[in-house]
Design a protein that fits this description.
It contains 7 helices and no strands. With 183 residues, it is mainly alpha-helical. Helix 3 packs antiparallel against helix 4, helix 4 packs antiparallel against helix 5 and helix 5 packs antiparallel against helix 6.
């Protein structure tokens, strides 16, 4: 007999807490990986948000991303620094990009026009675009164009790899399949 991960009466609330904790765990794993630029990250902490779109309401996904961003800033000590601005802008833009793709081309369709790989790529590019805008208009001016190729290239690669991982996870995970989707 399988024991459910979440108590049935509070499953949706516990699901938000679980996905938030997973975001924070993956965020801490990311901090252990060296970065060429302080705000350049792999995007591992966005993986639970990518997976959450089909299992949580849009409001809970937004709360998940906000929680991830703020608590990540508190834990890493960057909440009152420029790094937090890059993180907040990037995470918010990634969530909006993935959400627009999900609600416009995936949800409710018998044959979705995009999948997790496309959503992940959209999130990565939106993240990088927002970070470049913050870099351009708040910090580096026109010199931000010099980091654009590196940032966009790394975003494409990590977005593709995370999307492939997410797609394989969803296709093989009995636990993920057992979670109810949101109306």
């Amino acid at each position: 007999m399988e024991v459910p991960l979440f108590p049935p009466a509070h499953e949706k609330r516990y699901r938000l807490v679980f996905f938030s904790a997973l975001c924070l765990f993956l965020s801490m794993v990311e901090y252990a990986i060296p970065k060429p630029l302080p705000f350049m990250r792999l995007g591992l902490a966005n993986l639970p948000a990518l997976l959450a779109f089909s299992k949580m309401t849009v409001g809970n996904v937004a709360l998940l991303v906000a929680t991830k961003t703020v608590v990540q800033g508190l834990i890493s000590g960057t909440i009152f620094s420029y790094v937090f601005l890059f993180s907040a802008a990037g995470s918010s833009a990634a969530a909006v990009g993935m959400g627009l793709l999900y609600y416009g081309f995936v949800r409710g369709r018998e044959r979705p026009l995009a999948g997790l790989v496309g959503m992940s790529l959209a999130g990565a590019l939106c993240n990088n675009g927002a970070q470049l805008l913050v870099a351009r208009f708040l910090f580096f001016g026109t010199a931000a164009r010099y980091i654009a190729p590196l940032l966009l290239c790394s975003g494409m690669i990590t977005g593709l790899l995370l999307g492939i991982f997410a797609q394989r996870f969803v296709s093989k995970s009995r636990w993920y399949a057992s979670l109810e989707g949101c109306p």
